[in-house]
Specification:
The complex is a heterodimer of chains A (about 475) and B (about 110).
Chain A lengths: L2 E2 L8 H8 L4 E6 L4 E4 L1 H7 L3 H4 L4 H5 L2 H5 L13 E8 L5 E12 L5 E10 L1 H10 L4 E2 L2 E2 L3 H14 L5 E5 L5 H11 L7 E5 L5 H9 E2 L11 E2 L1 H4 L4 E5 L6 H13 L1 E2 L8 E2 L3 E6 L3 H6 L5 H7 L2 E5 L8 H16 L6 E2 L1 H9 L5 H15 L4 E2 L6 H4 L8 H5 L15 H15 L4 H8 L3 H10 L5 H4 L1
Parallel strand pairs in A: 1-5, 9-16, 9-17, 10-13, 13-16, 18-19
Antiparallel strand pairs in A: 2-3, 2-6, 4-5, 5-6, 7-8, 11-12, 14-15
Chain B lengths: L1 E8 L2 E2 L8 E7 L5 E8 L5 H10 L4 E3 L5 H9 L3 E3 L3 E2 L1 H9 L8 E2 L6
Parallel strand pairs in B: 1-5, 5-6, 7-8
Antiparallel strand pairs in B: 1-2, 1-3, 3-4
The chains are: A alpha/beta (about 475), B alpha/beta (about 110).
Chain lengths: ~475, ~110
């Protein structure tokens, strides 16, 4: 099917609005293969705005691997029907992206070639979906079989299917970023862009322009129109990480956008309607920040429509061993080493450690150990030095109290992880009337693990020992 | 003296570092003038081979279009300055380079090259 569409330098605004609403990357090229227009999805894929792209050759912006050797557009004289091929493009953020490209010639009413329409479909969501199916205990890249994580995994398919704002809380390293992307990939917006903004990484003025965009001349240095992350995330998901660091003045603006779904770029009186799902994440306790006057209560309510709290690793009973084995297998394969297990001593050390850096820290420890390990078993000498020093046992009080669990009193100063674990075992035994099998189930532990821990903490009676 | 490697595709800066099969190595004097200039053709496109060539040539600056994060970080680690995201014709880019005005991400359009 050949299209008849007139291309001219003055691109009609009404048509650009239509093309921007398409969730697939679109580029219009002239006969010389110079870009005339790219839609929002294409801007999001390549990182180049329509103003920057205009007039440049497609190969410079798209950077497709096919354009260097056998670019179908280069065979312009031969192209009379649409062609489709797979390849990779390289974004401005230096990311290689697997895509499917369809190229269609555009002919005028006399059948003369006037340009090309290029369609770029991001294939990353397909590869991620395939990877997701392979995990036995988990969701996307997250794994776990503790009761806490199981509850989260069970709720994720439902959470992914709504467009309601979602607030993710949890200590650093618990997997908030991975979870946000996994929810996007499992949602109906998976074909749209997933755009991440770290609210704590930029100064206030830059962040405002980054989030909402600006018009040419809005401030010194604004030499061209620039779409904000909200516009780039159109028909997709905007992930605002470190939302607790968002300055109060921008909190008001964000609140307005969440209400009206209209974004006003800096220096513009014209708003753009955006269809974006917002996922926010923080390691702060936002309720405490509201009380301290550092976070707007109304914004918290808007973001807190759905909420997921990712538990710290030390509270995910049974997951430490699962993750240790998972990371060991993964890094041993990656490093092409024949490492199959941990020594007893290492196991005891890693299972008893508090992990203030949570899963990220455990992953780093295993990666470090695999890199240094010379044999087939991880030994204490392969562990990072800070783990083998004396004060490794407990997470800091600061880490533990960063996000308070509902109904949970903050731990008193001087608490250690061992103390906390002992208290949890006692509570579980009290709850189950002393029945160890049931207590182990409540805690997500094996019976023998619970028994070993009871002996360790002096909770086994003389009868038990006999 | 500064050694600069420009990744090329015909008369333009190569859009992709890993697809480039031709490079120009220039030596710039203290005044920015080109003292020596040579063009090398590679056996095939390979980012790893190109990194080896860059280090082997004791290159201090690389000018290219898109480059993968892995290779970018590797070159930085090896103390090679990478001016990536550069778009433009070789002559225009070289002109801006010798004038000491070339920066990463520059789009050098013919009318703006002077």
């Amino acid at each position: 099917m050949q299209r008849h569409y007139p291309l001219d330098a003055h691109f009609p605004a009404s048509l650009s609005a239509v093309l921007d609403s398409v969730p697939v990357g679109l580029a219009l090229l002239d006969r010389e293969r110079r870009l005339v227009y790219v839609n929002l999805a294409m801007e999001s894929l390549t990182g180049y705005s329509v103003q920057e792209s205009r007039g440049l050759f497609c190969a410079n912006i798209l950077r497709c691997n096919r354009s260097a050797r056998d670019c179908p557009v280069a065979k312009a004289g031969q192209l009379t029907e649409p062609v489709s091929f797979d390849g990779t493009i390289l974004s401005r953020a230096r990311q290689k992206i697997a895509v499917q490209i369809t190229l269609s010639p555009i002919l005028d009413e006399h059948g003369r070639l006037t340009g090309y329409l290029e369609t770029i479909e991001d294939l990353r969501y397909l590869t991620k979906a395939a990877a997701k199916r392979g995990d036995a205990f988990g969701f996307a890249q997250m794994i776990g079989r503790s009761l806490e994580m199981e509850r989260i995994f069970n709720s994720l398919p439902f959470i992914a299917q709504t467009d309601a704002s979602l607030l993710l809380t949890g200590e650093t390293g618990t997997g908030k970023d991975i979870l946000a992307e996994a929810i996007h990939e499992a949602s109906n917006r998976a074909k749209g862009p997933f755009v991440k903004v770290n609210c704590g990484a930029l100064p206030e003025t830059l962040l405002e322009s980054e989030l909402f965009g600006h018009r040419k001349g809005a401030f010194t240095g604004a030499v061209e129109h620039k779409p904000g992350r909200f516009q780039l995330a159109h028909n997709g998901t905007l992930f605002l990480t470190e939302i607790g660091d968002l300055p109060l003045s921008l909190q008001v603006k964000l609140l307005t956008i969440l209400d009206d779904r209209v974004v006003y770029p800096l220096g513009s009186t014209k708003g753009t309607l955006v269809n974006v799902r917002v996922i926010a994440a923080t390691h702060y306790n936002l309720e405490q920040m509201v009380q301290a006057g550092r976070f707007r209560k109304d914004l918290l309510f808007r973001l807190n429509v759905l909420r997921l709290h990712l538990p710290p690793l030390r509270e995910r009973n049974g997951d430490i061993r699962l993750l240790m084995d998972h990371f060991l297998q993964s890094f041993a394969t990656k490093l092409e080493k024949n490492i199959g297990s941990y020594s007893e001593e290492v196991l005891a050390m890693l299972l008893g450690y508090g992990y203030p850096g949570n899963v990220r820290e455990l992953r780093n420890i295993v990666e470090y150990s695999c890199t240094l390990c010379q044999g087939s078993e991880i030994k204490p000498r392969d562990l990072p030095a800070y783990l083998t020093s004396a004060e490794l046992a407990a997470p800091t009080d600061q880490t533990r109290q960063t996000v308070a669990q509902p109904g949970q009193a903050p731990a008193a100063p001087g608490f250690s992880w061992q103390h906390l674990e002992r208290e949890r075992i006692i509570a579980a035994l009290q709850k189950t009337g002393g029945r160890r099998a049931e207590a182990a189930k409540v805690m997500g532990l094996g019976r023998s693990t619970l028994w070993r821990k009871m002996r360790k903490y002096g909770l086994a009676t003389a009868e038990d020992e006999a | 003296m500064k050694r600069v490697l420009l990744a090329l595709r015909e008369n333009d800066i190569a859009p992709r570092f890993d697809q480039c099969i031709e490079v120009m190595v220039v030596e710039l004097g203290e005044d920015g003038e080109v003292r020596k200039q040579e063009t090398l053709v590679l056996a095939g496109p390979s980012a790893d081979d190109l990194c080896r060539l860059i280090l082997g040539q004791r290159t201090q600056v690389v000018v290219c279009g898109g480059i993968e994060e892995e290779h970018y970080q590797y070159l930085l680690w090896k103390k090679v300055e990478v001016l990536d995201g550069v778009i433009g014709r070789l002559d225009d880019v070289l002109g801006r380079l010798t004038a000491g005005r070339l920066e990463a991400g520059d789009i050098v359009r013919p009318e703006a090259a002077a």
